[in-house]
């Protein structure tokens, strides 16, 4: 009985890991290119993917919060990023692939600071991980 319980717990723990690291095609549409400009709210430099949250001003007032999924920190570092590449309050323009479901969620292709300077070195591909 203990063995069955141990196997069940291991399977449950592994399921969470598999779900957290999903395929690009499951969530993002490679034909849907999105560019947003706004203010960084937060930047998580974590595995399996980092996350940037950006507040984008809306024409009717207020702002819409966008979640941008990045590559893993090891890939970001190879491209010149660090934990300090983005800070709350930074103005950025982010390009990426939009979510299949139309939500304000995208996969990072590249980001530029408020002066138009590329953050890091070059654009990311869909399969960079």
Topology (SSEs and partners):
Blueprint: H1 2-20, H2 24-27, E1 28-44, E2 51-57, E3 63-69, H3 73-78, E4 91-99, E5 105-113
Parallel strand pairs: 3-5
Antiparallel strand pairs: 1-2, 1-4, 2-3, 4-5
Provide a quick synopsis of the model.
The protein is α+β, with helices and mostly antiparallel strands and 129 residues long. 22% of the residues lie in helices and 38% in strands.
General description of the model:
This protein is of the alpha+beta class. It has a domain at 24-113: Nucleic acid-binding proteins (OB fold (Dihydrolipoamide Acetyltransferase, E2P)), CATH 2.40.50. It is built from three helices and five strands. A hairpin with a 5-residue loop joins strand 4 (91-99) and strand 5 (105-113). It is globular, with a radius of gyration of 17 Å. The N and C termini lie far apart (39 Å). 21% of the residues are buried.
Search tags:
3 helices; 38% strand; 129 residues; single chain; alpha+beta; globular; 5-stranded mixed β-barrel; OB fold (Dihydrolipoamide Acetyltransferase, E2P)
Query: SS-based structural class?
Result: alpha+beta
Order of helices and strands: HHEEEHEE
Q: How is the largest sheet built, in terms of strand order?
A: 1-2-3-5-4
**Total number of strands:** 5
List low-pLDDT spans.
Answer: 4-21
Name the CATH class of the domain at 24-113: Mainly Beta
Number of helices: 3
Any idea what the CATH architecture of the domain at 24-113 is?
A: Beta Barrel
| Mean pLDDT score | 84
CATH topology of the domain at 24-113: OB fold (Dihydrolipoamide Acetyltransferase, E2P)
Span between termini: 39 Å
CATH superfamily of the domain at 24-113: Nucleic acid-binding proteins
Percentage of residues in helical conformation: 10-25%
The radius of gyration computed from the alpha-carbon positions, rounded to a whole number of angstroms, is: 17 Å
In one word, what is the shape? globular
Biggest sheet: strands, sense, closure? 5 strands, mixed, barrel
